[in-house]
Amino acid sequence: MRLSTLALAALLALPLAAAAQTAPSYDAELAKSLGADERGMRQYVLVILKTGPNKMPAGEARTKMFEGHFANMGKLAGEKKLVLAGPLDGKEGRRGIFVFNTPDIEAAKTWVATDPVIINGEMVAEYHKFYGSAALMMVNEVHGKIEKK
């Protein structure tokens, strides 16, 4: 019985040993291109989109507003300003997030101000400094390769 326990333990340890041997090595050029510090991190602005004071009723105007919202996100992502975006669960009025490629909250505010959901008061924005992996800068490139459209 003891031998089978040791054999099982050895088998379970194999993936860990393989992962340790294939761990990627530091890529200084990539780190620099992503704006990474020595920890592989960088500064961003995190925006939490919350329910605003002006809920637009269902209909053509609301549909156009959200089409504009998605188009605006695409434009900002194409300009490499918007790093990451997505919806939230709506708890406590939190409806979505943006992560912007800037440490400057004032710059992020000017970019958010171009969004139709903000312009129409459907949502309001809350701004936070965010320190995260510089690899986030690659999300849009990778997403483009996995999105069927």
Automatic annotation (TrEMBL):
Residues 46-122 form the YCII-related domain. Residues 1-20 form the signal peptide. It comes from the Bacteria. InterPro entries: Dimeric_a/b-barrel (IPR011008), YCII (IPR005545). Gene3D superfamilies: Dimeric alpha+beta barrel. It holds the Pfam family YCII. Keywords: Signal. Belongs to the YciI family. This is YciI family protein. It comes from Massilia suwonensis.
